[in-house]
Design goal:
Strand 9 and strand 10 form a beta hairpin. This protein is about 10% helix and about 35% strand. The longest helix is centred in the first third of the chain and has 11 residues. By secondary structure, the chain is mainly beta. The protein has 3 helices and 13 strands. It has one domain.
Length: about 200
């Protein structure tokens, strides 16, 4: 089964064809999700964040729990969700998927009450990432993601920006190009990144 990024957001459309526009936004996404290819064989990387005792702020918000689309991806009945990182208005959760062996990244934005998720086999994290990205018109992208315990730093391939991994999660802003480097040695190709152009009535 192939998971697709899921986005739930309150959208105001000013172009008349509201239903079509909303459907396209949900399908294309203002945030793009992906995962680097999983190894053909082998176990999945360990995620220390999932071993941490549950805290009150680990509880998934009502916008996540009440969403039928997210319920198909996440094991929302478990107590295994963990808040891994807070980056501005974004709260990044690591959650086991509804299919055994899958891991989900859930990004809840408190500013606009939106939620985006992406799930992939845990084996993806052996040498890669599970991520969500937001491309900008200037060609840069914001990326949030999950990595296995073996990785500690994330950097742009040109070395212009970098960040440390916190609780198996990271957030890097205004990345140039479509490549990340994990711990200075593992290159991750995020694939083509195309910003969504939103036109308003003039």
């Amino acid at each position: 089964m192939e998971f697709q990024p899921f986005r739930s957001k309150k959208i105001v459309v000013a172009l008349g064809l509201a239903v079509v526009a909303i459907a396209m936004t949900m399908a294309i996404g203002l945030d793009l999700g992906g995962a680097t290819p999983a190894p053909a064989a082998g176990g999945s990387s360990h995620l220390a964040i999932l071993d941490r005792p549950m805290r009150a702020d680990d509880a998934l918000s009502s916008i996540v729990l009440s969403s039928p689309g997210l319920a198909k991806q996440l094991d929302t009945r478990s107590q295994d969700a963990r808040l891994a990182l807070v980056a501005g208005a974004d709260r990044l959760y690591v959650v086991p998927g509804s299919i055994d062996g899958t891991i989900c990244l859930v990004d809840v934005n408190e500013g606009d009450a939106s939620v985006v998720s992406n799930c992939a086999p845990g084996a993806t994290l052996d040498k890669g990432v599970i991520y969500l990205s937001t491309p900008h018109q200037d060609g840069t992208i914001d990326v949030v993601g999950v990595v296995g315990d073996q990785f500690h730093t994330i950097a742009a391939s040109d070395g212009a920006s970098s960040t440390r991994v916190s609780n198996n999660a990271f957030a890097i802003s205004r990345l140039q190009g479509q490549h990340l480097v994990l711990d200075g040695s593992v290159d991750v190709d995020l694939g083509p990144q195309f910003p969504v152009v939103v036109k308003t009535a003039g």
